[in-house]
Each structure stands twice: as structure tokens, then as C-alpha cells.
Amino acid sequence: MNRLDMEHKKKNQGSPKYLKIIAYFAGFSGILFLTFFIGYYISLSYSSIGIILTIFLIPVLLTLNNLLVYLFMKKKGITRKHKIIISIYFSINQIFSFIIGLTIPLMESISRNNYALVMLPLLVLINYILIRRILYYMEQENTNLTNRENNNTDLELETIKRPIIEFEGKKYTYSPYSLLLLAIGAPLLALAIYFFFDWEINYWLHELVVKQTTFLLNSLFNMGVSNSYLPQGSYHWNFNIPSRGTIYFETFCTGIQAICIFAGIIFFTPHSKDRRTNRDIIWRKTKSLIISSAIFYLVNILRMVIQIYLYYIGYAWSDIHYSISAASSFIAAIIVLLLHKWIPEFIISLIWVYSLIKQKVKKNSENTKKNI
Known about the structure:
By secondary structure, the protein is mainly α. The longest helix has 32 residues, at 281-312. It has helices spanning 3-14, 18-45, 48-73, 80-103, 114-141, 143-158, 176-197, 204-221, 256-268, 275-278, 281-312, 317-327, 330-342, 345-371, and strands at residues 165-167, 170-172, 226-229, 237-241, 245-249. 24% of the residues are buried. It has a three-stranded antiparallel β-sheet, covered by helices on one side.
């Protein structure tokens, strides 16, 4: 048996069959949708039968979901810690689908059903990325495969004349075209996402932020704040502040603009040409996007609560709106640090550009001296 046949055999032994992966993906996604519809039905019916179904069916579906996770990772050499982490991620994804189903019938927005149309495909995509993560753990256990990849990539990188940056035992070098794509694609994607959520069919996001902010204001400060929904004009939602009047709500108040910017950066952050460095890049990008988006969303809710409370106790809106918004921008700096932890490719790619320019200048200088 030659070397190519041995590699092919090891590859087949180290990864599940393609059809098996599709079957498990369909199973996870089916449970996800079923959980969503149960939440939707329970909220819509609002009966004792619905409560009983919740108490019985949701634990059953969570158990079934975790059983699929166990069967998919069975006898694959994956550590118990990784199995537990993956099971938790799948369960969180499933619970979130239930919450979406539970929430929609309680909403007032005409576009409330679009909440599911936007979020459920994203949850399905997360299921797929989690399956890829399982495959990564499977490959990680195959030390022979890892060593072979390391040797191959080292040989490949030696033939590249562009700068190579080493960081935490990994090698980073890029294609200039990927950096050009980052410069052009990131702002375009950020704008596309923002205008997508600024579309009236996605004003369900306005309702979520307004009602969550109102709930916190009344729970923490007993302010008696209410909100109004008028599906006309530019402002569909507003806050009614006792003795202070009305505050109108727009897309910019959702904090989505910060999420858009980081989504563009994360999505178009270039991948290193080193295959070993890139093996888990999709997972790291997904984790960064989810956590940064959650932080921005929660910080924005907190910002809204503080601003409206200060306005309620007598401060001028113009004095608090811009100052608190500017102060919350410090959160962006924290997110950049998190990005460097999970996606060092972004900052390293900027350093790489500087190294490339420096290399070109040095080479041109040497050529000039030779000609002289």
C-alpha cells in the first residue's frame, strides 16, 4: 500500500461518512424547529395544557438532542469535557429557539413573524458549525494527521516569499487580495446588515429593545414607563415617560450599528495561509460574533435604562444622550481585546501589511544600491 492510499484510508477512518453527517444535521435541525413550534403553540394557546406540554416535552426534546450529540461523538476519542461543552451549546441553541417561539405571539409588531424568519436560519447555521466543531475534535485526536499537516504546511510556507508572523506557536501569512477584501467587504457588509434591520419588516427588533428596556425601568425604579406602537411614519415605537413626555425610538437606538461593524470585521478577517492555523477559524469567528453581539446588545439595553432614568429625574436629554453613548464606546475597546484573543488574525493581518510594505521598501532599496 503506497503513501497516498494510507492517507486516504486514515482520512476515511478519522471522519464520519458524509451521509451520516447530513442525517445528524437534519436531526438537530428538526428538533430545533419542533422546539420552536412547541413554544409558539404554548404561548398562543396560553392554557393549562400548554404548561403541561412545556413541563413534559421540553425536557424530552433536550434529552433527545443530547442523545444525538452522544451518538454522534460515540467512540471517537473525544474527551468528556468537550462532549459536555458541545452538549451545552446545542442545548442553549435549542432553548433559544423555544424562547423565540414563546415570544412571537406576545409581540405587537406587524413584522413579529419575521423574528423567526431571521433568527431560526441562524440557529440552524449554528447547529452546522457545532457539527464542524465535533469533526474538529475528532481530527484533533488523530495525532498522526496533525503531525503530517504540520510538516506539510511548514514545507509550503517555506516556499512563500511574503512575511510570516509567528504568534503563540502558529504561523500567519496572508494573500494581499484577502486584505483588500477586508478593506472593501467589511464596511459594505456592515452597511448591508444595518439597512437590513432598518427596514420596516425588521422592526420587531425595535419592539424587543423597547419592551425589555421598559421592563427594567419599571422593575428597578418603579417609574411607570409605558410604550406605544404606531405602525406609521418613521418611528413605530416610543417611550412614554411620566411628567417628561415621549421619547421616540429608531434603529440606531437598538445598538445594531456596533454589531454590524464587528460582524463585517469578523466575517472578512483574512485567514492565514497556514492550514494548521486555520483549522478552527470558523468556530473562533462564530464564537467571537455571538459573544460580541450579546455584549453590545446587553450594554445597549443598560445604556437605554440609564439615559431614560436620568432624563426622568430631570436631566436634559441632549446632555445625557451623547455623553453616555460616547462612554459606552469603551465597550468596543474591550471587544477588540476579545477579538485578539479568539481571532488574532485581524490585528496580525494589520501588522503583516506593515511587514510586507517594509519588506518591499527594503528590497527596492537593495536593488537600487546594486544598480548603482
